[in-house]
Amino acid sequence: MNATQQPRLILLCGLPGSGKTTLARRLAEAVPAVRLCPDEWMADLGVDLFDEGTRDRLERRFWLHAQELLRLGQPVILEFGFWARSERDEKRLGARALGVPVELHYLSAPVDELCRRLEARSATGGSGTAPVTREMLKEYAQLFEAPTDDELGLYDAPPPPGRRK
User: Fold this and answer.
1) Architecture of domain 9-156
2) DSSP state, 57?
3) Where are the alpha helices (DSSP H) in 11-110?
4) What are phi and psi of 73, to 5 degrees?
5) For residues 88-106, b (16+ Cβ closer than 10 Å) or e, as one string?
6) Which SUPFAM superfamilies match (predicted)?
7) How many CA atoms lie within 13 A of 46 on its CB side?
């Protein structure tokens, strides 16, 4: 960690295909930060990406690890999707209890665009990606709790680009 870097929790929120991984990778390099992505870990471990029990356990472990890293002064990116406000609130309040700023990056796109991106991603066969059909995406969109303007106001703004490194 360089002398100007401060611990910071960065949450990436959005549906599949919204660009979370692309942004997370960019931020991880720019900040720099530790990026924790359940999809990639599950794929690397040979676990079905739709195994919700394993995903829940992994995300709980990642959160414990993230808190340890934040205590040590390391910025952390959690790339969980954060579909529910309660999940976002838990992480925001937990990081604030550690005295750490928290950013929420909400990525949104129309379902047709998400489907187009997911089809393109599936065609390349990237590691750590699961095939998501239009029907699944429509179901996910119904379950997803998009952050409101009031909720977004509870988070810290990212530091200016020149202040990241």
Assistant:
1) 3-Layer(aba) Sandwich (3.40)
2) H
3) 20-30, 38-44, 52-71, 85-97
4) 90, 15
5) beebbebbeeeebbbbbbb
6) P-loop containing nucleoside triphosphate hydrolases (SSF52540)
7) 0
